[in-house]
Structure formats: C-alpha cells, structure tokens
Design goal:
alpha/beta, Nucleotidyltransferase, domain 5, 15% strand, 210 residues, 7 helices
Length: 210
C-alpha cells in the first residue's frame, strides 16, 4: 500500500526502464500521449509502480520504436499489468513501441462491473472512494512531449499509478462478493481483440450493434 505520510519517490528514465526492477505483486501502468488519436498522437511517457510509493517514469523520445526492458516487463506472463482504462494504454504501447501487454487488469472495467450504484468510473472517482485519495487532475491537458517535465507533471503522472494496486484489491473484493469473477476475466481476455479493432480503424464503431 502506498505510504500517504510521505511524498512519492519518482525516478525519471530516458527511453527505457533500468534492468533489474521487480514487481512481485503486479505493476501499475499508465501512459501519456500528445492526444487521444492513436494514429496521430505519439506516446510520450509511461508510468509504472509496484504500489509501494515509488513511481518510475519512462520518457519516450520522438521517433523511438522500442524499449526492450519495458517490453520484457509488459509481456512477462508472470506479472499482471494493472491499468485504468487499459484499452487506450495498451493500444498506445502497441502502436508506438510494439508491446503486447499481457496479462492485464483494468480497474475501469472492474469498476463498471462492481460499482453499479454509480456512473462515476473515472480514475479520480474510483481512487477517491476506494483509496480515500483526492487526485489533482490539473495537469491532465499538458504538453507531455516536452523534455523537461515539470515537477507538477511528474507528480500528476505518478499519481495515476500509485494507488491502482489498492484499488484493484478493493474491486476484487466487490467482484468476488457479487460472483462476477468469470465475467471480469472474460472482459480482460477480450481486450487485445478490442485494441486490434481500435488500431485497425474500428475505434468508434460498435460492431455488435444491430
């Protein structure tokens, strides 16, 4: 669990994660891009945390096409990757760095299946209720391609992953209580196919619609 009493420890890396990092309880992952158009807006930053109050920020340079250590972690079958709205982040990692993330856990999907008493499934809403933390989202619209990320940007980026382990654990309790474990896993299993549709041009089309 993240230590609320002290500020997070943030490590900023250029181009890739350092070798030798360990994430025995899964790794929380998020990304920042120049916009929401996967074909146009490049990947600029990847945030990762073990849920221990430490965040690793990986800056992705313009034109960069690979990050071997990051790829090895994201494709390691023994490490669960925890996202909030995994659909976008794993698409960005696939589109810009050729990474196929698996296995994955999406707290937004879990929230929609567990927290049916609310329409508030954004990260800020979920973290406030389940982790008791009110996230500052002022830097959400920001120039993430700049090489000298401000302290405010770094803090914002870190907050997007620091609490996901705790949120996952709380959501899993609710999912088990309601008997929806199989349904949740089926949604996670479908995510790579949904991402493939997004990247192929069917992002705004519900092919299951009548």
């Amino acid at each position: 669990m993240t230590d609320r009493a002290s500020p997070p420890v943030i490590h900023l890396h250029q181009g890739d994660l350092p070798a030798g990092l360990s994430f025995p309880n899964g790794v929380a992952v998020d990304s920042e891009t120049q916009g929401l158009n996967l074909a146009r807006d490049r990947l600029c930053l990847v945030q990762l945390s073990a849920g221990d109050g430490i965040c690793h920020l990986v800056q992705v340079a313009q034109g960069q096409t690979g990050a071997p250590n990051l790829k090895a972690l994201c494709e390691d079958p023994s490490v669960v990757k925890i996202f909030h709205y995994a659909r976008f982040d794993i698409a960005a990692l696939k589109r810009w760095l050729g990474i196929d993330c698996a296995p994955v856990y999406c707290t937004k999907i879990a929230s929609r299946l567990a927290r049916t008493y609310t329409d508030g499934h954004g990260l800020k809403d979920v973290v406030r209720e389940l982790a008791g933390v009110d996230l500052d989202k002022q830097q959400q619209s920001s120039d993430w391609a700049r090489t000298d990320l401000s302290p405010a940007q770094q803090g914002y980026a870190a907050n997007d992953v620091l609490y996901l382990h705790e949120v996952r654990d709380r959501l899993d309790e609710m999912i088990r209580r309601e008997g929806r474990q199989a349904m949740l896993q089926s949604c996670f299993d479908f995510l790579p196919h949904r991402v493939a549709l997004d990247l192929a041009g069917w992002g705004e089309v519900d092919i299951f619609h009548h």
